[in-house]
Amino acid sequence: MPSVVTVTAEDLALPLEEHVMRTAAALEQYGHLVALAPADPTDPARRRLHTVRSALESDRIAVVPVTLPPLARVLLAEQVRQLAGTDLGPGVLAGAARLLTYYLHAGALLGSVTKLDRVPVGVATHVKSLVPGRHFAVLAHPEPYLGQADPDKVPPGPAYQTQLAVAGNGLDPAWITGPLASAWRTTHLREIPQPPDSARWWGTSRLVEFAAYIADIGMLYQLVTSVRRDTCTWCGLEVIGDQCLFCATRLGVRAAPASGQGAAGAAGTPAERAVQPARRPQLEPHKR
To answer: What proportion of the chain, given as a percentage, has pLDDT over 70?
Structure first.
């Protein structure tokens, strides 16, 4: 069953009527639409998507809210587009968009944190930000981190094989392409255009955004297919996670484990639990 994947932001706004027409055409051509949108319910781009969905009265549009910074959101959309070329159905693809966020490490090198509201910023750091020439290393996902861009200190990174994407030219990216890339043991550096909403998201135009991500489609497919699948009782799509992201139906309580399965079986595999907000499955760590 074909699907199309899109990522949206306020800068990509179209007149509502044109947006409705384009979305209707996409649904006609592809069958289902998975849209990644900002997590804030009041965000204009997300509200516009829900308006279009309501106008079309369609349960073939899944609006998937993500809390990722702009560059990581673009990479996530790229990963799900890759998976759309496999045998995974639209319900599984929508759930994969939630699952794969756990495998993105996203941050930025900033020249100022005075307007940063995505991670906690102490008073002392605000004061340091007023001193010219200071550069700050910020990690927004999966765990917040804020410190000076010190060659001898980098935020914790992934323990599995990733590539590193870099976007922006507001600062010298040497700390990212040098100490960070080395500490995170990335296999490839990739420069891509800066997303249009990066400056607004990070609170400054003096930045270089970075994100470590899994580029291997085989590994992505393995992660997604390792999660238990269920059939939505309303729309009939095969889904992963605790909810169908197309029709919003919550999955019922799953059956109790068979005799001898034990408590771990009742909770599901680590990969199953990953599509719920608190946990993620573990990948094999780097071998030195």
So the answer is: 79
Cα–Cα separations (whole angstroms), residue 257 to 231, 236, 267: 18, 24, 9
Confidence of residue 140 (pLDDT cuts 50, 70, 90): very high
Q: Which residues pair with 106 in a beta bridge?
A: 141, 211
245 CB neighbour count, 10 Å cutoff: 24
pLDDT tens figures, 230-255: 999 999 999 999 999 999 999 875 44
- Sequence-ordered alpha helix ranges (H) in 100-216: 123-129, 174-175, 181-184, 198-202
Sole residue written with tokens 């055409």: 25
User: Model-level pTM?
Assistant: 0.82
Q: Tell me the pLDDT tens digit for each residue of 195-210.
A: 999 999 999 999 999 9
Check if the beta carbon of residue 32 is closer than 8 Å to that of residue 62: yes
Dist CA 225 CA 216 (whole Å): 14
Q: How many residues does the chain have?
A: 288
Domains annotated on the chain, with CATH? 3-103+217-274 (no CATH), 105-213 (3.30.1180)
